[in-house]
Amino acid sequence: MATELDKVDVLTVGVGWTGGIIAAEAAKEGYSVVGLERGRARDTEDYQNIHDEYKYAIRYDLMQDVSKETVTFRNNREQTALPMRQLGSFLLGENLGGAGTHWNGQTWRFLPYDFQIRSMSEERYGSDSDLLGDDDGYQYQDWGITYDELEPYFDRFEQTAGISGEENPLAGERSNPYPTPPMMKTRTLQMFEEAATNMGYSPIMMPSANLSEQYENPDGESIAACQYCAFCERFGCEYGAKSSPEVTVLPTARKTGNYEVRTHSNVVEILTDEDDDSQVTGVRYVDTRTGEEFIQPADVVVLTSYIFNNYKLLRVSDIGEQYDPETQEGTLGRNYCYQIFGSATGFFDEQFNTFMGAGALGMAFDDFNGDNFDHTDLGFLHGGNMALTQTGSRPINSNTVRPGTPSWGSEFKNDSIENFTRTLTVQGQGATSPHRDNYLDIDETYNDVYGVPLVKLTYNYHDQDVERQKYLTERATEVMEEMGATEISSSGELTDYDIVPYQSTHNTGGTLMGDDPETSVVNNYLQHWDRDNLFVVGAGNFAHNSGYNPTATVGALAYRCAEGIITFLEDGGRLEE
Predict the structure, then answer these.
(1) How many CA atoms are closer than 13 Å to the CA of 319, on its beta-carbon side?
(2) Has residue 187 got a pLDDT over 80?
(3) 501: cis peptide before it, omega within 30°?
(4) Where is the Glucose-methanol-choline oxidoreductase C-terminal domain (predicted)?
(5) Which of 45-49, 209-213, 418-422 has the lowest average pLDDT?
(6) Is 518 exposed, middle or buried (0-12, 13-18, 19+ CB in 10 A)?
(7) Coil, helix or strand for 321?
(8) Measured between alpha carbons, how far is 305 from 536 in angstroms, rounded to an integer?
(9) Contact (Cβ atoms closer than 8 angstroms) between residue 512 and residue 335
(10) Which end of the chain is more exposed for a tag (fewer CB within 10 A), N or C?
(11) Are 463 and 130 in contact (CB under 8 A)?
(12) What's the pLDDT tens digit per position in 467-501?
């Protein structure tokens, strides 16, 4: 028998960036907020002496325990989906702060083109263009919001996080400069900048949540300056110099006195009002230590977990219509997207200090991103951000060897040591296209440790993805040649997607936003079309992926969502643009 608790104004399911932003904004307005986090509590003090590469980068101490919950995977509907038994292609965060704790800090705004990819592509290439791929199963659609509408929320996120950067001539217009200057420009970045400039491109320092200087944000939270220690991705920051929920929005929410975080609290169901199916009443959750069940009523419920869990809770709670790839009807689970990478690794005679670095220390250019170049004869839409990063070459995972070198033995060891500080990689980060056959569902066979079905991922690359990756590889190779590498090893062409090894944690889709309930799950305030007091915010809202890391866009959507929630609490009803 579940114990029913006292009702609160706002309940968030998950306490990372999105849950923290919504908690801070609602709590500052005087509303009572509870955040349910299924992992444990943690803060900057817990990351002291965390430079243990094996524990955190290899054994994934900060990540989700896949023995308790994972996803099942298949390339197509004819295959049997099987569980991902250990973390592979993507690393799912867990515990307070979520993936916002172990992220690298690369903080790009999506391009104006991203939000209107369908309409802008039709305008440039024609509504019947083969590039749109309607007859080939591609499902390009606009987001129901424009870059200009979202720009103030991008600015709010950057000011809160203190992002270090410089203006990008190929990106959308900004209302304010970045709050802190760009990070230092190392020798390797200077080489990339010189090569890209010589080729007529527009390189800039990467926007970074590893701050270039001490910063106090508008809420009075202090963020330290980066020490360039090279332990960012897969690690928490022991200096408090990587903007994360623990050093920004969560302290702000707590200081109001209106916020409570409950850790070890795993939500298993969203509860719908029996008398009014346009409303939810709260959630049912399990204490992961004792097994006790609780019902937490709330005026507003906000799903602020990772995309798989947001999708899963809607699906098992029977909220919304599951997407059917056969008929292309339904919206829940639609347009799952991932990323592709086209890279070139160069071998040099000189040594670089690549053992130092930071998660977002890099230079990049967008000449081949979005629609910044003509796609007429290329066979694909969109593109990718081209970058060289110096994130820090840690010794266990840094074994770059020349093509043809054995993968073990004395020759492998010698080549690994020789090239440890003599290799650089230029990489084009692109997205995979939304396709009718790439989607989320729930598994009929496998459950998590609480008896709830696992998420089933059906996903593979398609022709546009293959061509886009090939194109980015060619461009990356040209840049590396201009940088003067003595030997270059370039990415091979894509074959079937495999869920191992690690590739990117930038999963998107499944709970799309839009202006039409027939093609989206939530409106542009992230309010569910079928439940007025239910909001869903995260990268699952993306109608397609981009050539960027998603966090800044997720943060902007969270601020947009928070505004909508406060308006709803004041006025009720359906939010309209």
Answers:
(1) 30
(2) yes
(3) yes
(4) 434-558
(5) 45-49
(6) exposed
(7) coil
(8) 9
(9) yes
(10) N
(11) no
(12) 999 999 999 999 999 999 999 999 999 999 999 99
Give the model's pLDDT for residue 577: 65
What is the C-alpha to C-alpha distance for residues 261 and 572, in angstroms, rounded to an integer? 25
Tell me the pTM: 0.97
Distance CA 285, CA 282 (A): 10
Q: Say whether 506 is catalytic.
A: yes
* 176 pLDDT above the threshold of 90: yes
Strand locations in 14-97, DSSP E?
33-36, 71-74, 82-83
Residue type, 424: L
- Output the pLDDT for position 519: 97
**Stretch (H or E) spanning 12:** strand 8-13
Which among 102, 375, 435, 506 is annotated as catalytic?
506
Task: Write out the DSSP string of 236-254.
Answer: --TTS-B--GGGTHHHHHH
How deeply is 410 buried, as exposed, middle or buried, from its count of CB atoms within 10 A (0-12, 13-18, 19+)?
exposed
In the DSSP assignment, the letter for residue 86 is: S
14 with 37: CB under 8 angstroms? Answer: yes
Q: Which amino acid is at 331?
A: T
Q: Quick check: 527 pLDDT over 90?
A: yes
pLDDT tens digit string along 360-415? Answer: 999 999 999 999 999 999 999 999 999 999 999 888 888 898 889 998 999 999 99
Structure tokens at 262: 């409950």
Q: Label residue 272 by pLDDT band (50, 70, 90).
A: very high
DSSP code per residue over 486-511: SEEEEPPPP-S--S-S------B-SS
CATH architecture under which domain 3-571 falls: 3-Layer(bba) Sandwich (3.50)
Both tokens assigned to 469: 């990756």
Which token pair is 382? 């969109």
